[in-house]
Each structure stands twice: as C-alpha cells, then as structure tokens.
Amino acid sequence: MTSTPPELPKIQGLADALLGESPRLSRGEVSAAAGVSVLSARRFWQALGFPLVGSRDAVFTEADAAALELVTSLVRSSGLDETTALAMTRAVARTTDQLAEWQTSLIAEYTSEEPELTHDVARRAAAHLLDLADDLEPLLVYAWRRHLVSSLAQLITQADPAEQDVVHRCVGFADMVDFTEAVRRMTERELGRLVQRFEELASDVVAAHGGRVVKTMGDAVVFSSDEPVHAGNIALDLVDVLSADRGTPQLRIGVGCGPVTSRLGDIFGTTVNRASRITALARPGTVIIDDPLARELSSHPDFTPKRLRPRSLRGLGLTSVWVLRRAPEAAAMHADRRG
Description:
- It contains twelve helices and ten strands.
- The chain has helices at residues 11-19, 27-34, 38-47, 62-77, 82-111, 119-157, 179-185, 188-208, 228-244, 270-279, 291-297, 328-338; strands at residues 166-176, 212-216, 220-225, 251-263, 266-268, 286-290, 306-307, 311-313, 317-319, 321-324.
- The strands form two sheets. Strands 1, 2, 3, 4, 5, 6, 7 and 10 form an eight-stranded mixed β-sheet that branches. Strands 8-9 form a two-stranded antiparallel sheet.
- The longest helix is centred in the middle third of the chain and has 39 residues, at 119-157.
- The mean pLDDT is 87.
C-alpha cells in the first residue's frame, strides 16, 4: 500500500498536471489557434467524446489546439479525408476513454481496501495516478505500435479484393453462469473484483493461443481466432481455468466459424450471431460449437466433437450443433501440464 502523497490534487489542478496548463481558451480562440473553423473544431471535439460547450466557455488549452492542428494536418498532408480523420480520432477516443476509466478504478481500489470511496481515498488515488502518468504514456504508445504490427500483418496476409471487409474467423462467446444471482449476493466492490478477475483470466487464455479479445461485457467475453484449433483450445482452456479458480462462476461457451464482417475493431455477421445463439445451449462448464468448426476439428487428434440433435435458433432456423471435448490422451496431457 502506498503512503499518502505530500500534496493531494484538486480538480482545478488536473489539467495543469496532465495538459501543462489550465483551460483558458474559448472555442473560437482554440479554433483560431489551430487555424480551423469553429465547425471543424466542434466536430473534432465531438469525435473525442466530449460535450459541446458555449461560445464563451473557457474550457480549452494549447494542448487542445495542438491536437486539433494535428488532425487538420492529417487531412491536408496525408491524403486522408475529414471523415476518415474524424473516424480515427473517434477510435482513439473510445479506446483511451475506456483505458482511463479502467486505470482510475484499479488505482482507486489499490489505494484503499475500504468498500466506500471517500474524498480522501479519491484524492490519494488521483495523486498516485498523476505520478504514474509519465511512466504509463510510453507503455501506451508501445502497446499501440505492437498491436499495429499484428493488425497490419493480418491485413496483408488476408487481403482479398472480392471481400474487403469480410474475413474468416472463429468467434466465441464465453458467459459466466448464474451471474445475475452472484450480483445479488455481492457488494459493488466484490462485483468489480469478480469482473476484473474474469477479464484477466480470459485475456491471458485468449492471448496464450494467439487469439483476440473482441470485447468484454461484464459477465461475458467475446473472442476470435484465425485458427480453428486455437479457437477450440481457447474455449476448453477457458472452461478449465475458470472452473479451477475459486470464487469465479463456471462458464458456458459457444464457438462458431465462418465469414465475419470486421469493422472498427468489432465483428458482425451470421457467424457471430450463430456463436451467440449456441452459447445459450451450453451447460455450465461445456463448449458448444457449430458445424463448420466441428468439421475442422473432427480430424484433429486433440478433439472429440460429439454431434447433438439440431436446434432451432432464432433468426437462423434449424442449426447443427456439437459439444466439444478433448480427446482422452490430449486431456491427460493437458491435466499433467496444469499440474
């Protein structure tokens, strides 16, 4: 546990500490400083996820002007149109907004074990995170560049002129069983820790097999993988890891394989819908897969898909489904590795 910082920050001083100065510019002044119209500045501000402000409200800094000028230069010098530049700004804003919220919650919990978030705890947590900001910033840039390497490599290897936004993926939905009942029994802090633990375990398993966490939704994680074998291992490992973790509910998992539409970091399409629907068919601690994935895994020595009776799924009609298990020899080897 950290000691109390000598100076606790006030709200008015946060911009000074993180942006280098207090807000003093109106929307007209920040637009003039960046050399853009007020309308363009307003579009940029909205793309960042911030509310509109009055014409006389002094809520901007020179850092805001510099960022606005940067977006403008993307349009003027890099060949991007304004729509694309604003879409990229919106993507950065959504990601960093979630990141800031996540880090703030983590540091607040680390600062105090008390269930109540008092003003003193909040200010000490803010001071601690301000101290860490300069060290976290290069990590953020590094992580972005590292993921950009993977994303660009995937773009190049899967290029298909006929299907610009369509890629072939295995998509899985991992849902915590009886989550609603768990919510009734827990305090807010206990619930937060449960969700955090679930996301940590799931992220580690998905990453270990080269998959990607598409999104988290509290009691559920959506993941994807380019390789059917990896998708099968992710699903079965998730079941095993969560079952072995005390205090974490069991999972039910559904995995589908096929074409998906990938846009702005999310995935859509019939394959995604099918994976979501078959998840509800899974019993606690089991994995249900669709026909395309079963065909891919049926000849693999590590898996033994077992056909179930077809089910009628909303919006999809009669659908073939399978329960996925490890082959006995693979299960024994897996148990040995887990100790």
